[in-house]
Amino acid sequence: MAPSGSRSIKRSCQTVLYWIPVLFINLIVAWSYYAYVVQLCIVVYLLAYHVIFILFTWAYWQTIFTKPMNPLKEFHLSHSDKEMLEREDRGESQQEVLRRMAKDLPIYTRTMSGAIRFCDRCQLVKPDRCHHCSVCDKCILKMDHHCPWVNNCVGFSNYKFFMLFLAYSLLYCLFITATDLQYFIKFWTNGLPDTQAKFHIMFLFFAASMFSVSLASLFVYHCWLVFKNRSTLEAVRAPAFRHGADKNGFSLGLSKNFRQVFGDEMRYWLLPVFSSTRVLKTLQASTRRRVTWDNLRRLNTRGCSFQGKLQRFDGEPMFH
Ligand SMILES: [Zn+2]
Ligand SMILES: [Zn+2]
After folding, report:
1. Start and end of every Palmitoyltransferase DHHC domain (predicted)?
2. pLDDT band at 168 (very low <50, low <70, confident <90, very high)
């Protein structure tokens, strides 16, 4: 068989495999709905249950199907840049070429050795907080991690949805655990009629309480990351700036850190709709205006960038 044929079969198999965890979660959610609404069916709780269920599935859907954002075209190498880079065979000469290319881009992070961050695979200068995902095979803006449970990269475009997914799934599990508790106790004290429903009630309680524990720890961890303005990758390894590694390099204070993810308008905070519009506009504007390190330094700031300290100037005429 031709190598390209076997490659495409391998890719198709991988695509199917990557959807298995999502299918697994969906089956559990569908069963939990059946067990709670049809088998347990506590009428007084059904309205609240459905409100939580809709918010949870909406946030989950948004996390799965929101495409991760890739770097703007300004970060990609032009044809002549690529040729120039190919001509240089030594590391230092290549870095010189990259430095020249990157000088007009709003980039403040470096590799640990102080070099310009470059993605060989996508042929681009990596914006700050951007990382190449080996599963998606793309560079993802403010990449947090690749999540197998949503078969998607969690990053700038869907981090708020991911947070709400964690929050609403935790609320969903806690709600089921709390309202199912009295029937769970009756199950062990033989207070339930001997029907098929009693087993659904028991397993529902076990599943909901177990998921509550794991979701709570994940949710608390990500709340901490949001308030510190760190991604999971940055929590593992501090980003390196010109002045060296700085784990708080992107932090703007609790309130601004929170607003970078959830947006400025409070009415959208609890809804899984994209609301970091100001951050996105600042990113695009700063790239188009060719914000440079020297410009930033003139304004007496520490070098930070995309979704970082650049935000201080949002709404003001930054550079002329
Ligand atoms: Zn890449
Ligand atoms: Zn990915």
Report:
1. 117-236
2. very high
Which range of residues forms the domain containing residue 189?
Answer: 3-66+158-228
What tens digit of pLDDT does each residue of 198-211 get?
899 999 999 999 99
Of 24-28, 109-113, 210-214, least confident by mean pLDDT is 109-113
Token readout for 272 is 């899984």
Ligand number nearest to the C-alpha of 135: 2
Residue positions counted in the chain: 320
| Ramachandran angles phi, psi of 172, nearest 5° | -60, -50
Ligand nearest to the CA of 124: 1
Catalytic-role residue among 122, 147, 153, 173: 147
- Spatial contact of 129 and 110, defined as CB atoms under 8 Å apart: no
Does residue 176 belong to any structural domain of this protein? yes
- CA 122 – ligand 1 centroid, Å: 4
Highest mean pLDDT among 178-192, 244-258, 269-283: 244-258
Distance from residue 146's CA to the centre of ligand 2 (Å):
4
Say how many domains are in the chain.
1
Give the separation between CA 246 and CA 244, rounded to whole angstroms: 6
Most distant CA pair in the chain, distance: 80
Asked, for residue 76, whether it belongs to a domain, the answer is no
Distance of CA 98 to the CA centre of its chain: 28
62 lies in some domain: yes
pLDDT of residue 49: 97
The answer to whether 173 and 208 are in contact (CB under 8 A) is yes
Contact 129, 57 (CB under 8 A): no
**Residue 122 annotated in active site:** no
The answer to the question of residue 108 being in a domain is: no
Ligand 1 centre and the CA of 73: distance in Å? 13
| Interval between CA 131 and ligand 2 midpoint (Å) | 10
